[in-house]
Amino acid sequence: MSDDPNILRARRATERIDKQATFVSAEYGTISRWLTASLFALNGGAAAAFLNAREAAKGHILPIILFGAGVTFAMFGAMVVQEMYGRLAELLRHQDAYWSRVAITGRRLRWVEAKFRASRRRRYRCAWLAPMLGWVSGALFLSGLIASARGW
Questions:
Q1: Maximum CA extent, the chain
Q2: Which end of the chain has fewer CB atoms surrounding its CB within 10 Å, N or C?
Q3: 74: closest CA among 29, 135, 25?
Q4: Radius of gyration (Cα) for the chain, nearest Å?
Q5: Cα–Cα distance, 11 to 100 (Å, whole number)
Q6: Range 99-105 contact pairs with CB under 8 angstroms and sequence separation of 24 or more
Q7: Residues with Cβ < 8 Å from 137, sequence gap 6 or more?
Q8: Cα–Cα distance between 74 and 42 in angstroms, integer?
Q9: How many angstroms separate the CA atoms of 5 and 62, rounded?
């Protein structure tokens, strides 16, 4: 085993990246399932709205609009998270390839590592967007419940 610090660092980085890639892959699958469930809920809501068209004709359309908007925001949030995890998975693949090369050669490229850091920072800059969309979706759902209860 080599005592070269670059090779040791590369091995540790490769192990860390493998763990992160496993997590990202699991999260990506979970988000995909939730997105599918949201689409199912949207279609179910559309069917319920269609069946309740008579009620909507009486002027009680606000809850339907609020629920529909809530599902739309939930789906948009899931799509944003899915896109973020997809890009993160791509970054992890590139990092894994780089550190595997460093583990073999012992040669590090500082500009490549700086590029990885900048890429991670760009990805985390929009990390607030998905939770915010989830909160908006939840608020619209609660507003829809209130509107239904009050008969608006």
A1: 79
A2: N
A3: 135
A4: 23
A5: 7
A6: 99/10, 99/11, 99/13, 99/14, 99/17, 100/10, 100/14, 102/6, 102/7, 102/9, 102/10, 102/13, 103/7, 103/10, 103/11, 103/14
A7: 70, 71, 73, 74, 77
A8: 10
A9: 64
The two tokens of residue 118 are 């900048």
Cβ-based neighbours of 8, under 8 Å, separated by 6 or more = 2
Contact 59, 137 (CB under 8 A): no
Q: What is the pLDDT along the chain (152 residues), one digit of tens a residue?
A: 557 788 888 888 888 888 888 888 787 777 767 776 776 676 666 656 655 655 655 666 777 788 778 888 888 887 888 888 888 888 888 998 998 888 888 888 999 999 998 988 887 787 788 788 878 888 887 887 788 777 77
Residue listed under structure tokens 């799509």: 79
